């Protein structure tokens, strides 16, 4: 055997050094994976507003325009004056002057606000959004006081948002883009404004009187929201035990039934999304007082909705409707 030269011996790596190098590389990769920021769910889309639109989103738009110096009346109607103010704002920001409020315009319009912020019109815009999401005790007075702070804290906790009580661009995007009442995942939404649950949170756990379902005491005219995405189907009738009803054939393969309605806001076959207004509650049909009868049917069988409702009320991801029990609905 030819002996190795001094140069060869000096440069040849030992088995120990190779193991050390491999260990270092693996540790570096593992540290990188553990230290990487967790992936976040996609943000909801900004609403697209243009001439003819109405509602709280338009009111918030108008207050934000006013905060930026726009001469516009906050009447919740996207009228000619509002369109002119939008175009003037877009021109000032170097944006496309099409008079349509989309992602690029919203990004420049929204203003970070926090408790005590002096931007009263921007705070009013925030307050209109909070009311849209069920925080009806919040006044639209432009004062970022305790009531507004409490609502912001609750909303941000429900949607897993960070940043304390400051309302920045991400929170604005959630407020403007998420369906009213939607939970952190946006897949399911609570069925009425939370503050309208007449008997309080614990009443959502009460059993139905004879079969799996839930009776939620509410005033006549309370908004009823689609619990999930699907296709609406009108059923029942004034002389039917359900009264005026709406069923949602959910994209999750489960049917959701709303009964005793006062009016319906969707047509037969309408596609709905979580948190979309579908009806107003009432006292029609076989009913002893104003309430919303809510039922879940899985492959034609009634299942207990209580745990799903309480999770959505609490702003948590609900259990799959496919795991809900068919009996024992008391808890």
In words, what does this structure look like?
It is a single chain. With 331 residues, the chain is an alpha+beta fold. It folds into two domains: 122 residues, no CATH class; 130 residues, Glucose Permease (Domain IIA). 31% of the residues lie in helices and 15% in strands. The chain has nine helices and nine strands. Strands 1, 2, 3, 4, 5, 6, 7, 8 and 9 form a nine-stranded antiparallel sheet that branches. A hairpin with a 4-residue loop joins strand 4 and strand 5. Helix 3 runs antiparallel to helix 6. The longest helix is centred in the N-terminal third of the chain and has 21 residues. The chain is elongated, with a radius of gyration of 27 Å. 39% of the residues are buried.
Task: Please provide a brief summary of the model.
Residues 214-305 form the M23ase beta-sheet core domain. With 331 residues, the protein is α+β, with helices and mostly antiparallel strands. Helices cover 31% and strands 15% of the residues.
Relative helix content: 25-40%
The biggest sheet amounts to:
9 strands, antiparallel
Please state the overall shape, judged from the principal axes of the Cα atoms: elongated
CATH architecture assignment name of the largest domain: Distorted Sandwich
Structural class: alpha+beta
Query: Counting H and I runs of at least 4 residues, what is the number of helices?
Result: 9
Question: If you consult CATH, what is the topology of the largest domain?
Answer: Glucose Permease (Domain IIA)
Q: How many domains, in number, for the residues?
A: 2
**What is the distance, rounded to the nearest whole angstrom, between the alpha carbons of the first and last residues?**
82 Å
Q: State the CATH class of the largest domain.
A: Mainly Beta
Q: What is the percentage of strand-forming residues? A: 5-15%
What name goes with the CATH superfamily of the largest domain?
Glucose Permease (Domain IIA)
Number of strands: 9
Q: Could you report the average pLDDT, rounded to the nearest whole number?
A: 84
Uncertain ranges: 1-13, 22-41
Order of helices and strands: HHHHHHHHEEEEEEEEEH
Radius of gyration: 27 Å
């Amino acid at each position: 055997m030819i002996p190795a030269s001094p140069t060869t011996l000096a440069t040849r790596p030992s088995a120990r050094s190779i193991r050390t190098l491999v260990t270092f590389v693996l540790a570096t990769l593992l540290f990188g994976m553990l230290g990487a920021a967790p992936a976040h769910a996609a943000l909801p889309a900004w609403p697209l507003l243009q001439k003819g639109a109405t509602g709280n989103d338009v009111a918030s738009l108008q207050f934000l325009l006013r905060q930026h110096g726009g001469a516009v009346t906050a009447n919740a109607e996207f009228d000619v004056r509002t369109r002119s103010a939008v175009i003037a704002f877009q021109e000032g920001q170097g944006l496309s002057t099409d008079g349509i409020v989309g992602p690029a315009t919203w990004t420049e319009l929204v203003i970070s606000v926090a408790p005590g912020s002096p931007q009263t019109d921007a705070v009013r815009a925030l307050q209109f959004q909070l009311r849209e999401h069920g925080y009806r005790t919040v006044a639209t007075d432009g004062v970022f006081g305790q009531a507004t702070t409490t609502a912001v804290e609750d909303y941000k906790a429900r949607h897993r948002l960070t940043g304390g009580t400051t309302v920045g661009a991400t929170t604005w995007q959630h407020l403007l883009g998420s369906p009213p009442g939607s939970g952190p995942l946006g897949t399911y939404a609570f069925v009425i404004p939370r503050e309208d649950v007449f008997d309080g949170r614990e009443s959502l756990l009460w059993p139905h009187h004879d079969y799996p379902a839930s009776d939620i005491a509410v005033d006549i005219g309370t908004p009823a929201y689609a619990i999930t995405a699907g296709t609406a189907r009108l059923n029942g009738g004034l002389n039917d035990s359900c009264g005026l009803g709406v069923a949602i054939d959910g994209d999750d393969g489960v049917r959701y039934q709303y009964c005793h309605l006062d009016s319906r806001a969707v047509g037969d076959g309408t596609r709905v999304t979580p948190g979309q207004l579908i009806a107003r509650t009432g006292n029609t049909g076989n009913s002893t007082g104003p309430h919303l009868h809510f039922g879940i049917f899985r492959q034609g069988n009634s299942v207990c909705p209580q745990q799903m409702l309480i999770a959505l009320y609490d702003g948590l991801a609900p259990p799959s409707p496919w795991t809900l029990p068919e009996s024992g609905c008391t808890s």
